[in-house]
Amino acid sequence: AQSVSQHNHHVILSEAASLELGCNYSYGGTVNLFWYVQYPGQHLQLLLKYFSGDPLVKGIKGFEAEFIKSKFSFNLRKPSVQWSDTAEYFCAVTVSNDYKLSFGAGTTVTVRA
Amino acid sequence: NAGVTQTPKFRVLKTGQSMTLLCAQDMNHEYMYWYRQDPGMGLRLIHYSVGEGTTAKGEVPDGYNVSRLKKQNFLLGLESAAPSQTSVYFCASSYTDRVHEQYFGPGTRLTVT
């Protein structure tokens, strides 16, 4: 079974700082990649997804992620964070013929005003 | 359109007690899922269903049972609760042709003492 690793457990930064969250997966075949976000007290929401094509994908709220196949990575980035980006971020993977999401452990992001 | 709803939101059980968590969706989704979320472990799939009357085991099915008697409902049962089942439980659903885009409910926080 594939596994998903998120490198950072907790990230603390100030508003306007840049954010990059790492995500690596273990499966060598064709994968679909996702980032979900969970704001405090809310349920998970899809932030962005990659199925095929341009490896740089843009999501909601100014987030983007880059798929680097050779590195088995799908890192999430935002050039300038806001206080409202405080949330827990989950990377998730499915293999091409499967619909079961495998989630990483999550990264808690705290943005200080 | 309520999306995915879960009942109850909070529950405290004593070891050995039983309970059922209810998930309902009004989006006519074929696929439904139950996850548990534990600190540092992300979300793990307990059971899932690809249609009314069908269920299948996920990553961590032991100690849980499920039923999908109606398309819009997916029930998760704990027959004899254990402290290891203290967790936050999330239900999700998705369309057949977009199974990777899962819509999540607000979660149920369960404590087993």
Topology:
The complex is a heterodimer of chains A (113) and B (113).
Chain A: E1 4-6, E2 10-14, E3 19-21, E4 23-25, E5 31-38, E6 45-50, E7 56-58, E8 64-68, E9 73-78, E10 87-95, E11 102-103, E12 107-112
Parallel strand pairs in A: 2-12
Antiparallel strand pairs in A: 1-4, 3-9, 5-6, 5-10, 7-8, 8-9, 10-11, 10-12
Chain B: E1 4-7, E2 10-13, E3 19-25, E4 31-38, E5 42-51, E6 54-57, E7 65-67, E8 73-78, E9 87-95, E10 98-104, E11 108-112
Parallel strand pairs in B: 2-11
Antiparallel strand pairs in B: 1-3, 3-8, 4-5, 4-9, 5-6, 7-8, 9-10, 9-11
Q: How would you describe the oligomerization state of the chains in this entry?
A: heterodimer
Order of helices and strands of chain A: EEEEEEEEEEEE
Biggest beta-sheet profile of chain B: 7 strands, mixed
Helicity level of chain B:
under 10%
Low-confidence stretches of chain A: none
Task: Please identify the structural class of chain A as seen in this structure.
Answer: mainly beta
Number of strands of chain A: 12
Greatest interface and its residue counts? A-B, 22 and 23 residues
Whole-angstrom Rg of chain A: 13 Å
Protein structure class of chain B? mainly beta
Main beta-sheet strand count, sense and barrel state of chain A:
6 strands, mixed
Query: What form of chain A results from the Cα inertia axes?
Result: globular
Order of helices and strands of chain B: EEEEEEEEEEE
Distance between the termini of chain A: 41 Å
* Topology, number of strands of chain B: 11
Query: What's the total helix number of chain B?
Result: 0
